[in-house]
Specification:
The chain is α+β, with helices and mostly antiparallel strands. The protein has 5 domains: 214 residues; 106 residues, PAS domain (Beta-Lactamase, 2-Layer Sandwich); 104 residues, 2-Layer Sandwich (Beta-Lactamase), CATH 3.30.450; 78 residues, no CATH class; 154 residues, Histidine kinase-like ATPase, C-terminal domain (Heat Shock Protein 90). 59% of the residues lie in helices and 17% in strands. Helix 1 runs antiparallel to helix 2, helix 1 packs parallel to helix 3 and helix 2 runs antiparallel to helix 3.
C-alpha cells in the first residue's frame, strides 16, 4: 500500500513536474519570443537612425561639392545615396508587421528622393555654371524644408517603434515574472523530487539568466538609442508626471532630473504659452489621446527656440495606459526658413510692381501665374482677366510654343538660350491692336517647377526715334556731302581770284615802281597783304573742316617722331626766334600720326609766337595716367593767359591780341581741340599772365583689334 502510495505520490509528482516543466518551457519560449521582438525593435530604430545619418551625409556631401568642387564630396554623395536606398529597403522589410509604420514609408521615400534630386541639382549647377549658381540653389531654403519634413516622419516612425519597444519590454517583464513564479514552484517540487527534477530546474535557471541578461541589454540599448536621437525625449507615468528625460534634454535646457521630475518642465516654458500648453496636455493625458503642440522652450543660454512636441500613450494588451513617451523636435530653422521665404516673396513682388517694364510670369503649361501693374497698362487687361490664361493671348503663338516646352528640362533649356538677349516681337492688346515689344526672359526654380519670368518693354517710342535717327543720319550725310563740295570749291575756285588779284597787284607795283606816290605803294601793299591773309584764312578753314573727314586709320606710332616732324616744319621759326625746344622721352601711342604732328606744330608754334622779352623756352613731356591714357604737356615762358580766357581760346576765330601784334587767324587751337575730340581725347591749359603757359592734351590708350 505504501509502495503504491509512494508510486502514486511519485507518479503525481512526476505529473506535476511534467506540468510545471511544460508551463516553464512555454514561459521561457514566450520570453525568448518577447526578447526577439525587443531585438527586432532595436534593429528598426537603428536602421531609422541610419536613414537620418544617410540624409545628413547626402546634404553635407552635395553642399561640400557645390562649395569646393572636390571629387571626394561627390564620391561621398554617391555612397550615401546607395546606403540610403539600402537602409530604406531594410526599414520597409522590418516594418512589414506594422501597417501604421508602412503608411508613413511612401512619404518618407518621396522626401528622400526629393532631397537626393535637390542635391543632384546643386552638383549639376556646380559642374555647369559654377559655385555662385550652386550656392544660390543651396541657399533657397528648400532643402531645409524637405529635411524638416523628413525628420518629422522619421520621428513619427521612431515614436511608434519606441511605443512598441516599451510594450514589448513590459510584456517581457511580465513573462519573466511568470517564469520566476513557475520556477519557484518547480524549485519546491524539485526539493521533494530533487533527483527527478534537478535537471529541469538547472535548465530553467539557466534560461532565466539568459532572459535577464537579454532584458538588461534591451534596456541599455533603448537608453543609448534615446540619448542619441536628435529630439529631446522624455517618458511620463500614466498621469503625465515625467520621470525620465534623455541626455539631449539636459544638454539643451541646462537642467537636472531633480529640477524637471514630475511637472518641473514648466520652468523652461515661455510664460506667454505656459497655460495653453498645460491645459492641452492635461486633457490629452486624461483622455489617453495623442498629444501634439508647438511652443518655445528656453535653452541653457537663456534664448527660446520653437519645438514641435508629440507624445503617444503606451498601453498594455487590455488598452490601459501604462506610460507616455514624448519627443520635442527643434523647428526654429524651419520657421526661420518659412519667414525668409515669405520675406523673399514679398520683396520679389515689390520689385515686380516697381519695375518700369511689364513683367509676366508663366508656368510650364504656358499659363500666366503672376503679372505687375505695367502689364495691365500695356495690354489693357485687368489682373484677374490674365491670371490663369494662356500667354498666347498677349504674344505670338509660335514664339510662346517654342519657349514654353513640356517638362522642366525642355523649359529650362528654352529659356536659358534667351537669357540676356532682347527679342523684338509684336504684342497684342485686349482690343486686338498690335504694338512693337522687346522681351527679356529668365528661368525661376520653384516648388511647382520652372517658371519663366518675362520682362516686356513697349518699344513704340524707340521705333519712332530710330526712324527719326535714320532721317537725321541721311540729312547729316547730305550736309557732309555739301560740305565736301564747298571744301572743293573753296580750295580751287575761291582761291583762284585771290591769286589773280594778288599777282596783278604785285605786277602793278613792280611796273610802276617809282612812278607812283607813297600812298599808292602803301595801298598796293595793303591789297597784297589782304590777299595773302585771305588765302591763309581759307587754308586754315579747310584744315579745320577736314579734321573729322581726312583722319587716317589709328595705329601704333612714335609720338617722338611726330614731334620731330613738327619741329622740322617749324625750323625757320625756331631759328629766327632763337627758341630752345626740349623734350623728355616720348611714348608709343595708338593714334593718327599726321594729326598728332599737327597738334605739336600748333602748340609749339604758339609757344614761340606769343613770347615775351626773353628768348622762348619750350619743353614737351608725357606721363601715363593709370594705364588708360597718356597726358602730354607743352610748357613755355611766354606772355601767359588770364584764366578768364581759358575756354575762349579754343573757339574758332577767337584772338586775344590784335593782328598788328601777332599774325595768324585764331584757328590753330580750335583745330587741336577738334582733332583731340575725334581721337577721344581732350585739351586744356594752365597759365598766369607774364608767367608762361602749359598746354595739356590727353590721348586714350587704345588696344588694337
Amino acid at each position: 500500500m505504501l509502495k503504491r502510495k509512494v508510486q502514486l505520490a511519485f507518479g503525481s509528482a512526476i505529473v506535476i513536474l511534467l506540468v510545471v516543466g511544460a508551463v516553464s518551457y512555454r514561459g521561457i519560449f514566450l520570453s525568448r519570443e518577447s526578447d526577439r521582438w525587443v531585438r527586432h525593435s532595436h534593429e528598426v530604430l537603428e536602421n531609422l537612425q541610419n536613414l537620418v545619418t544617410d540624409m545628413e551625409r547626402i546634404e553635407s556631401s552635395d553642399r561640400g561639392f557645390a562649395l569646393t568642387g572636390e571629387m571626394v564630396y561627390l564620391e561621398s554623395y554617391r555612397a550615401s545615396v546607395l546606403s540610403a536606398g539600402q537602409d530604406a529597403a531594410a526599414v520597409r522589410t522590418l516594418t512589414k508587421d506594422n501597417p501604421k509604420q508602412q503608411l508613413q514609408l511612401p512619404a518618407l521615400e518621396d522626401l528622400m528622393a526629393q532631397k537626393i534630386r535637390l542635391g543632384g541639382v546643386a552638383i549639376l549647377l556646380r559642374q555647369t555654371k559654377g559655385v555662385e549658381a550652386a550656392a544660390e540653389a543651396i541657399g533657397s531654403g528648400r532643402g531645409q524644408l524637405i529635411m524638416a519634413d523628413y525628420l518629422g516622419i522619421v520621428s513619427k516612425i521612431q515614436d511608434e517603434e519606441l511605443r512598441l519597444l516599451l510594450l514589448r519590454n513590459v510584456e517581457s517583464n511580465r513573462r519573466r515574472a511568470q517564469t520566476k513564479t513557475i520556477l519557484l514552484f518547480g524549485t519546491v517540487l524539485g526539493v521533494l523530487i530533487a533527483v527527478g527534477a534537478g535537471w529541469m530546474v538547472s535548465r530553467d535557471i539557466a534560461a532565466r539568466g539568459l532572459a535577464e541578461d537579454a532584458l538588461r541589454e534591451g534596456e541599455e540599448r533603448f537608453r543609448n538609442l534615446a540619448n542619441n536621437i536628435s529630439q529631446l525625449a522624455w517618458m511620463a507615468d500614466e498621469k503625465g508626471a515625467i520621470f525620465w528625460y534623455n541626455q539631449r534634454w539636459f544638454d539643451y535646457s541646462g537642467t537636472t532630473l531633480e529640477e524637471m521630475v514630475g511637472w518641473g518642465w514648466q520652468k523652461v516654458q515661455h510664460p506667454d504659452h505656459l497655460q495653453r500648453v498645460v491645459d492641452k496636455i492635461s486633457r490629452c493625458f486624461q483622455k489617453g489621446e495623442v498629444w501634439e503642440d508647438t511652443f518655445p522652450l528656453r535653452g541653457r543660454d537663456g534664448n527660446y527656440r520653437w519645438f514641435l512636441s508629440q507624445a503617444v500613450p503606451i498601453r498594455d494588451s487590455e488598452g490601459k495606459v501604462l506610460r507616455w513617451f514624448g519627443t520635442n523636435t527643434d523647428i526654429s530653422v524651419l520657421q526661420e526658413a518659412e519667414r525668409h521665404l515669405a520675406q523673399m516673396e514679398s520683396r520679389y513682388r515689390g520689385l515686380l510692381e516697381a519695375a518700369p517694364d511689364a513683367i509676366v510670369v508663366v508656368n510650364q503649361a504656358g499659363k500666366i501665374v503672376l503679372l505687375n501693374v505695367q502689364a495691365e497698362k500695356q495690354f489693357g487687361y485687368t489682373r484677374d482677366e490674365l491670371i490663369g490664361q494662356e500667354v498666347t493671348n498677349i504674344i505670338p503663338e509660335g514664339f510662346a510654343e517654342r519657349l514654353i516646352a513640356d517638362g522642366t528640362r525642355s523649359a529650362t533649356e528654352a529659356v536659358t538660350q534667351q537669357i540676356g538677349t532682347g527679342i523684338e516681337l509684336s504684342g497684342r492688346r485686349k482690343d486686338g491692336s498690335e504694338f512693337p515689344i522687346e522681351i527679356m526672359l529668365s528661368p525661376l526654380e520653384s516648388a511647382e517647377g520652372v517658371l519663366v519670368t518675362t520682362a516686356i518693354r513697349d518699344i513704340t517710342e524707340r521705333r519712332r526715334s530710330e526712324v527719326h535717327l535714320r532721317k537725321t543720319v541721311r540729312e547729316l550725310k547730305r550736309s557732309n556731302d555739301e560740305l565736301q563740295q564747298f571744301a572743293y570749291v573753296s580750295s580751287h575756285d575761291l582761291q583762284e581770284p585771290l591769286r589773280m588779284v594778288s599777282s596783278y597787284t604785285q605786277l602793278l607795283a613792280k611796273r610802276y615802281q617809282g612812278r607812283l606816290d607813297s600812298d599808292a605803294h602803301e595801298f598796293i601793299a595793303f591789297a597784297v597783304d589782304g590777299c595773302n591773309r585771305m588765302q591763309g584764312l581759307i587754308q586754315d578753314l579747310l584744315a579745320y573742316s577736314r579734321v573729322g573727314t581726312n583722319g587716317k586709320e589709328l595705329s601704333e606710332v612714335s609720338s617722338e617722331n611726330a614731334l620731330q616732324k613738327a619741329l622740322t616744319n617749324l625750323r625757320i621759326t625756331i631759328e629766327q626766334s632763337g627758341a630752345d625746344v626740349t623734350h623728355d622721352s616720348m611714348p608709343v601711342v595708338t593714334t593718327d600720326e599726321t594729326q598728332l604732328t599737327l597738334i605739336f606744330q600748333n602748340l609749339v608754334g604758339n609757344a614761340i609766337k606769343y613770347r615775351g622779352a626773353a628768348p622762348p623756352r619750350v619743353h614737351v613731356s608725357a606721363t601715363r595716367n593709370g594705364g588708360n591714357e597718356w597726358t602730354f604737356s607743352v610748357r613755355d615762358n611766354g606772355l601767359g593767359i588770364d584764366p578768364q580766357y581759358f575756354e575762349r581760346i579754343f573757339i574758332l576765330f577767337q584772338r586775344l591780341h590784335g593782328r598788328d601784334e601777332f599774325e595768324g587767324t585764331g584757328i590753330g587751337l580750335a583745330i587741336c581741340k577738334k582733332i583731340l575730340e575725334r581721337l577721344g581725347g581732350r585739351i586744356w591749359v594752365e597759365s598766369q599772365p607774364e608767367k608762361g603757359s602749359t598746354f595739356y592734351f590727353a590721348l586714350p590708350e587704345i588696344e588694337e583689334k
